[in-house]
C-alpha cells in the first residue's frame, strides 16, 4: 500500500507540513488575540489580566453561577468568550 496523500496526488487533501504552523507569538491564542482562561467560579476572575486574557466559562457551570460570573466580568471589564448576554435580558424585562 502506498499513500496517495503522501504522494501529493491532486485529488487528495494536502498533508500538514511545517508551513501550516502559525507564528510563535500568536500560537495558542484565541483569534481575538487573547489567551483563554477557563473560569469555574467568580473568584477565578480576580487573578486575570484584562489586557491579555479572556474568560471562557466552563461547560459544567450552571445558569445561576454563570450569570454571577458574567456580571462580575463586566465589572472588571474582562471579555467573556462564551457569553450569553444576561445584561441585555435584564434591560428588556424592565421596559
From TrEMBL:
<dbReference type="Pfam" id="PF01655">
    <property type="entry name" value="Ribosomal_L32e"/>
</dbReference>
<feature type="region of interest" description="Disordered">
    <location>
        <begin position="1"/>
        <end position="24"/>
    </location>
</feature>
<dbReference type="GO" id="GO:0006412">
    <property type="term" value="P:translation"/>
</dbReference>
<dbReference type="InterPro" id="IPR036351">
    <property type="entry name" value="Ribosomal_eL32_sf"/>
</dbReference>
<comment type="similarity">
    <text>Belongs to the eukaryotic ribosomal protein eL32 family.</text>
</comment>
<keyword id="KW-0689">Ribosomal protein</keyword>
<dbReference type="GO" id="GO:0003735">
    <property type="term" value="F:structural constituent of ribosome"/>
</dbReference>
<feature type="compositionally biased region" description="Basic residues">
    <location>
        <begin position="1"/>
        <end position="12"/>
    </location>
</feature>
<dbReference type="GO" id="GO:0022625">
    <property type="term" value="C:cytosolic large ribosomal subunit"/>
</dbReference>
<keyword id="KW-0687">Ribonucleoprotein</keyword>
<protein>
    <recommendedName>
        <fullName>50S ribosomal protein L32e</fullName>
    </recommendedName>
</protein>
<dbReference type="InterPro" id="IPR001515">
    <property type="entry name" value="Ribosomal_eL32"/>
</dbReference>
Amino acid at each position: 500500500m502506498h499513500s496517495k496523500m503522501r504522494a501529493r496526488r491532486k485529488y487528495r487533501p494536502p498533508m500538514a507540513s511545517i508551513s501550516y504552523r502559525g507564528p510563535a507569538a500568536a500560537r495558542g491564542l484565541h483569534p481575538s488575540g487573547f489567551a483563554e482562561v477557563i473560569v469555574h467560579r467568580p473568584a477565578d476572575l480576580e487573578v486575570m489580566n484584562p489586557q491579555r486574557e479572556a474568560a471562557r466559562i466552563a461547560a459544567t457551570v450552571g445558569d445561576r453561577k454563570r450569570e454571577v460570573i458574567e456580571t462580575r466580568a463586566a465589572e472588571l471589564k474582562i471579555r467573556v468568550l462564551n457569553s450569553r448576554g444576561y445584561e441585555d435580558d435584564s434591560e428588556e424585562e424592565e421596559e
